[in-house]
Amino acid sequence: MLKINNLNATIDNKSILNGLCLDINPGEVHAIMGPNGSGKSTLSNILSGKKGYEVSGEVLFEEKDLFELETEERAHKGIFLAFQYPLEIPGVNTNIFLKTSLNAVRKARGEKELDAIEFLKLVKEKSKELKFDEEKLNRQLNVGFSGGEKKKNEILQMSLLAPKLSILDETDSGLDIDALKIVADGVNTLRDKNNSFLIITHYQRLLDYIKPDFVHVLMNGKIVKSGGPDLALELEKKGYENFN
Amino acid sequence: MKEQLQKDFDNSIKNLSLSQKDIEIKKFCLDNFIDKGFPNRKEEDWKFSDLNQIIKNNIGEISFYNDQTSTNKVDTSVFVDGLEHNKIVFINGRIEKIDFEYEKKDQIEIIDQSETINEFKNSNSLSDLNNAFTNKCFKILVKKGYQLVKPLIIYHTTNSKIWSKNINLRLNFELNKDSSLKVIDLFNDTSEKNFLNIFYNFELKENAVLKNYKIDKLENKNIKYSFNNIDQDKNSISETFILSSGSNFSKNEINCNLNGVYASAFVNGVFSLSKDKHHEIRSIINHLTENTKSYQLIKSVLDESSKAVYQGKIFVNSDAQKTDGYQLSKAILLNKKSEFNAKPELEIYADDVKCSHGSASGSLNDDSIFYLMSRGLSYYQSRELLINGFLLDVVEKITDSEIKNLIKNMIGIKE
């Protein structure tokens, strides 16, 4: 599904990714762990199309060159990034945003756009599953939401857009145990043989709830070690230093 | 221009049956205007908008005489649908219709004041020009205790019959004790290169409520100047909302005198500009007695090489203790060539007052755009959503919900 081959990225002449390689097949869950500044967020930004990076190397998503796609086209094709810091957008009603987003994606995928009633039914259902306070849907997007609510809102968007590849950028940071379980449930519900996940995290904790198939250690812009779920436990014990 | 003015003035006087005294006054005003000409950047109030240059560049040769002897056909297609309203219709500056069909006839008086010249507390030469050339002036008087059932829409329509001309309008309003009136000014211009010069005078008695919404939305190539003078007695409220968008140039001036205790004034505005449009709002709020309040919020979205100017002055005289005065302007610049100028002025002579001002301008937040695009929205959709969100809180200040929805629809803000 996703093939990253020798990906290099620099920003303001600072090299961040240095020959990163990663293959994700349909249905797989990959976790990337790494210390601060190792390039985790840069990787997720580049995959979802953020501007401002000088990149080289190759990234294929379902055999297509990802760099030829605009940010929104990547979303249409099924790439979703749950932001580490979801933005507050004053004046934009959450419901209107969700509906515009869902219909933009549905339209691009050749599916019928939802009318207001169909949309509300769907969003209510999903909110309930995620224990996301429905009243928040009528508020301005993320404005005045707690950290946990913002993250839940990301997962709500993920479950509405039903992406093929979901990238979770430190979604677990700032979550309490209950919220963590809800977020993990949201991911696990979406998990099937077609959908893949790339989970970026500092801690092993989230991986207790979302069992990864592969764990990778990212240091200085490249993957230095890959393994199964046990690697995460090993990291938790020994820290990153041993991999340097 | 002087010869043109003299000639056009003589022509327009011919068609009016004025007393010798009124003619003298009009002549005096004309001479004043000839002497001063159009305002230019040497005058502090016009330093961001040199009207003299703007008229030269946009209109070139301008003439002042309008044949107002024959009536213009009223084009009903410009009337607003879905909102019952009273009407005043100006076509090419000629008043064609005054219709208060939804109101009690004995509660509103329409007084012909064409023969009396009103002194405006405005020293600029446009007031003189207006006095010299206005040929009909009415006063709308709302009687004590009467609150109009429906809003009044004033249609300002220009069509291809006039070109490169100056139009002068004047209306006076008197809102007596406990009365209320909502006025919407709606511009429909299909003419080009005209200069509209509009003066309104509002007199608000105790507890009176005035809401004035000025909507210049339709794309047009005219130059507009509009001056509102508002005098407010005890406990009265004035709310002014300006949607400044369609004309090539527009300057709205609001001069508000809070003469009575607990009087309050609200001035809110949106500049939504593109191309090389140049618009200005200038407000002067005079807090002249204690416990008066003013609130102003101006938001601008400026694309291409457009330019917006907000000059807001809050004056507090020494008697006006417990004044509460607030103003804020915010601008989003969508293009490197667009420009926003803000000049807040506070002049305070009392010591127990609460006054503040602020101004901020910047571009759209790239991270917000990225966030929205990563959810499948196009750049254009993301931009629209952010702009609407930015403008929403000023539109939400409109206290009349029907009119708020009308204006939201015009701007394209979805609920």
Let me know the number of strands of chain B.
19
Order of helices and strands of chain A: EEEHEEHEEHHEHEHEHEEH
What would CATH call the architecture of chain A?
3-Layer(aba) Sandwich
Structural class of chain A: alpha/beta
**Principal-axes shape call of chain A:** globular
Main beta-sheet strand count, sense and barrel state of chain A: 6 strands, mixed
Approximate helicity band of chain B: 10-25%
List unreliable stretches of 5+ residues of chain B: none
Query: What is the CATH top level name of chain A?
Result: Alpha Beta
The shape of chain B is globular
What's the end-to-end separation of chain A, in Å?
30 Å
Helix and strand sequence of chain B: HHHEEEHEEEEEEEEEEEEEEEEHHH
Strand order of the largest sheet of chain B: 2-1-5-7-9-11-13-15-17-19
Roughly how much helix do the residues of chain A carry, as a percent range? 25-40%
Uncertain residue ranges of chain A: none
Number of helices of chain A: 8
Distance, first to last CA of chain B: 51 Å
Question: How much of the sequence of chain A is in beta strands?
Answer: 25-35%
Number of structurally distinct domains of chain B: 2
Would you give an account of this structure?
The complex is a heterodimer of chains A (244) and B (415). With 244 residues, chain A is α/β, with parallel strands linked by helices. Chain A has one domain (2-243): Rossmann fold, CATH 3.40.50. Chain A is 36% helix and 29% strand. A six-stranded mixed sheet of chain A has the order 6-9-10-3-11-12, sandwiched between helices. A four-stranded antiparallel sheet of chain A has the order 2-1-4-5, covered by helices on one side. In chain A, strands 7-8 form a two-stranded antiparallel sheet. In chain B, the strands form two sheets. A ten-stranded mixed sheet of chain B has the order 2-1-5-7-9-11-13-15-17-19, covered by helices on one side. A nine-stranded mixed sheet of chain B has the order 3-4-6-8-10-12-14-16-18, covered by helices on one side. In chain B, a hairpin with a 2-residue loop joins β1 and β2. Chain B starts with a helix and ends with a helix. In chain B, α2 (20-36) runs antiparallel to α4. Chain B has helices at 2-14, 20-36, 51-58, 125-133, 366-373, 379-395, 401-411; strands at 86-91, 94-99, 108-112, 138-142, 152-158, 166-175, 180-189, 192-204, 209-216, 221-232, 237-244, 249-258, 264-273, 278-287, 293-302, 307-316, 324-333, 339-348, 354-362. The interface between A and B is medium-sized, with 31 and 25 residues.
